[in-house]
Design brief:
Length: 87
């Protein structure tokens, strides 16, 4: 099953958007749930978005220096688990 990983809500203090610094895995790498997937930057903080599931990274949608709003697609992970998507 393909699992869409989206930028989570950034909290009340955030400006509502973050910039992609870099992805830790490369395309087709296998990752484990909880592994760091992508480093994001805001005007106030740097944070990592963890992989919500274990599987293979089959698509990296956001590129370095892309600025995204909460809920926008970062990547797609192919997994055996029967889940849909995470926001």
């Amino acid at each position: 099953m393909r699992f869409e990983v989206k930028l989570p809500e950034l909290g009340d203090d955030a400006v509502g958007e973050a910039t992609v610094s870099f992805f830790y895995p490369e395309l087709n790498d296998t990752i484990q749930e909880g592994d760091d997937l992508v480093e994001m930057l805001t005007d106030k903080a740097t944070f990592n978005v963890p992989a919500p599931v274990s599987g293979k990274v089959v698509q990296i949608v956001a590129k370095e220096n892309d600025t995204l709003k909460a809920g926008q697609l970062l990547a797609v992970i192919e997994t055996e688990k029967d889940r849909k998507s995470v926001v």
